[in-house]
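Hi, here's the filled form for the chain we discussed.

Project: internal
Contact: R.S.
Residues: 225
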Amino acid sequence: MTSLSSNGIQNLLNAKRYSDANCLLPPPNEEDIKAISTFQALFPIQKAAWVQGTVKLAYGFTKYWTTACVNCHKIVNANIDWIIHCPSCKQQSEVELRARIPIIITDPSSSIHCIIFGEDAEKMIEFTPLQLKQAQEDGFGIDTELNDALKKYTVVCFLKSYETPFQGQLQRKNTVIKAYTAAELSHHPLPLALPENTQVSSALGSSSARHPEKSAKDQMFTPTT
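And the returned structure, exactly as it came back:
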């Protein structure tokens, strides 16, 4: 491993690279990727791992955006025109809109529900965070458009699992910390192809319910190119 000089370390600290997932989580080696079923079985002994699979939208949500601190990207309950003192990074900060998309990642072993945020989500959905917010406020249903965009992708993701209280019980949730698409890893030796017609089981169930066709009003809201 290459060592850094004290000046090199200080430069990384000054640039806040310690909070940059692109720097901290480069593409993994093939042997570092776990089957989703293995990752699920290891919880809570292991709470984070690289997984790989195809993507689709997890239906049932109406809000696909959130507000976050510009400095550390942690979620804050604030309007986008506010200047805040962030409770996470302890810095004065502006507030930004970020995508917050519930997805299901599937490999030949199982499926897992998770949330993907920010740039990693936005590069796949073709909508800006502002468009996601406007769609909700205007009552446009964009589930079909989001799913059509997401299902084009195979991704390699670093997932983090945790438990949070919900109605008196602990509920397990999964967050995508960093995601790479197959196109981004085209020169990286990873098993990016999944077998066709793979039968996938999941303890979380599947989202195979049919959804109504878009109305003419829905079709008026189109994603960015």
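Let me know if anything looks off before we file it.
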